[in-house]
Structure formats: C-alpha cells, structure tokens
Write a structure and sequence with these properties.
With about 260 residues, this protein is mostly helical. Helix content is about 75%, strand content about 0%. The protein has one domain. It is globular, with a radius of gyration of 19 Å.
C-alpha cells in the first residue's frame, strides 16, 4: 500500500514490526553497511581513545590539565564524527525499507549508491544534530533530550526529501511533533537494552565496570565496542526508518512505497 487512511495514532508495536520486517528482508545489506558505517568508525574511535586517554589519565604521572583537556576534546570530536557516520546507516535502512515495500530486487550496490549520493547532507545533518544535542545536554539535560526527539528522523528526511540543512531539521521536528512521547519510549527501551547488553558483554569478557583504566583497554575498544555498535547500530537504523514511515503515514497518509519516486 502506498497511500490510504492514516492510522490515527502512533503505534510502537507497528513501528517495531516494520523495523523487524526491514531487517528480515535485507539482513546482509544492513549488517555489511553497519560494519562499514559503525564498526570501522568505532575502531578509529577506540584507537584515538587509547592513544590520547591512557597517557592523560596515567596514575603515575602528575596531572597535566592542559593535556587532559586537549585529549578530551580530541576524543570527543572523533566520537562525534564517528557517530555522524551512523546517519549513513540510517539512510541505508530507509532505502531498504522502500525496497521491501516495493518488492524491489535491488541489493547492496543500489543501496550504497543512494547513500553515497546523499552522504554530504547526511554527514552535515548528523554533525549538526549531534552537536546540538550535546550542547543541550551540557546546558541542561532536558533541552538535549527534546532536541534528540525533535530530530529523531533527520537521516530518513535527508535521504528521501531534497531539503537543505535547516529545512531538514525543521521537517524532522514537524513530523515528530505530537508523537515525541512514544518516540521517547522507544529510545528509552533501546537505551536500556543497549546498556544491559554492554554490561553483560563486559562482564563475560572480564572487563571491569568500575576501574577507569578499563575504558582504555584493547579488548573494550577493539572488540566489545565495535561488536556492540554493529549490532545495536543496525537495530536503531531500522527502528529510525520505521519511525519515519510511521510518521509519514500518520500525518500524510503516505506509506513507504509512496515516496519511492525519489529514486526514479
């Protein structure tokens, strides 16, 4: 179905069912791109974290506050850039959703082609939204959460709708308006599942949960974090795509197939 009567209200169950359907129909494409856009950036972030944090936090050397601040700035900057790559994965999931809805036989190459074509605006939107949420959280936690909810579907919008940076942010805010409580619930569920998974994985691997030095361990940065990011990055990508199409259907009566003309 490409258009029809809007569902009336946002339904989390329908969103999760669509997300599962997207992954079930395109698992190899999504996992491969998650390794590329999630796993590899995580490895880079891990290397930077080990290289710059281990020396700055050395218990045997006097604290160099200037070096500590510089190291923190470098690590966080790389982490934000790496997180922005996750928007490319969300774009891939959005394309996969349309392929599933239209029963397209397009595979990895077609999905990758679309993502590359939209990469500049996706990376720009990802960077700006990440910085905006970070500043909001530093100022006071609530503004950061509100921005994260308003901009929850910026990646699908940037993928399918030919808008500029500001218009993309506004479009996401308009789509999510009225459904942010439900989206917050999905984010909370995802966050709790991710935290529990990471804690269990660290416990099984024998990585301390209380020793700060463990945060610069090779096992954590080169194995645990990348594996976790590939898994949960894929999950959040398909959920984000599903949220976007739920909102399009809710507000405009348009299903995934109804926006497939963007690829014509």
């Amino acid at each position: 179905m490409t258009a029809g009567t809007a569902p009336g209200r946002f339904e989390t169950g329908r969103v999760l069912a669509r997300a599962y359907r997207i992954f079930r129909r395109r698992p190899l494409t999504l996992v491969a791109l998650s390794v590329l856009f999630g796993g590899l950036p995580s490895l880079v972030t891990g290397y930077v974290n080990i290289h710059f944090s281990s020396g700055a936090l050395s218990p045997t050397a006097p604290t160099d506050w200037r070096a500590l601040v510089a190291s923190f700035a470098i690590v966080e900057s790389v982490a934000i850039l790496a997180a922005s790559c996750g928007y490319l994965l969300q774009a891939a999931a959005t394309v996969c959703a349309i392929q599933v809805q239209t029963r397209s036989e397009d595979g990895l190459s077609a999905t990758m082609s679309t993502v590359i074509r939209r990469a500049p605006i996706l990376l720009l939107v990802g960077l700006v939204s990440q910085l905006g949420v970070l500043v909001g959280e530093l100022a006071f936690l609530v503004p950061g959460v509100l921005l994260a909810l308003a901009w929850a579907v910026v990646a699908p919008v940037a993928t399918l709708e030919p808008l500029g940076l500001v218009a993309t942010l506004r479009r996401s805010a308009a789509l999510t308006r009225g459904s942010r409580g439900a989206i917050f619930g999905i984010m909370l569920l995802y966050g709790l599942a991710t935290v529990v998974f990471n804690l269990v994985l660290r416990g099984v691997a024998g990585v301390s949960l209380v020793d700060p030095a463990a945060n610069t361990s090779t096992l954590l940065n080169f194995i645990i974090n990348p594996v976790s990011l590939v898994i949960w990055g894929t999950v959040w990508a398909v959920v984000t795509a599903a949220i976007y199409f739920e909102l399009r259907w809710l507000k405009e009566g348009v299903e995934a197939g109804g926006v497939a003309a963007v690829f014509d």
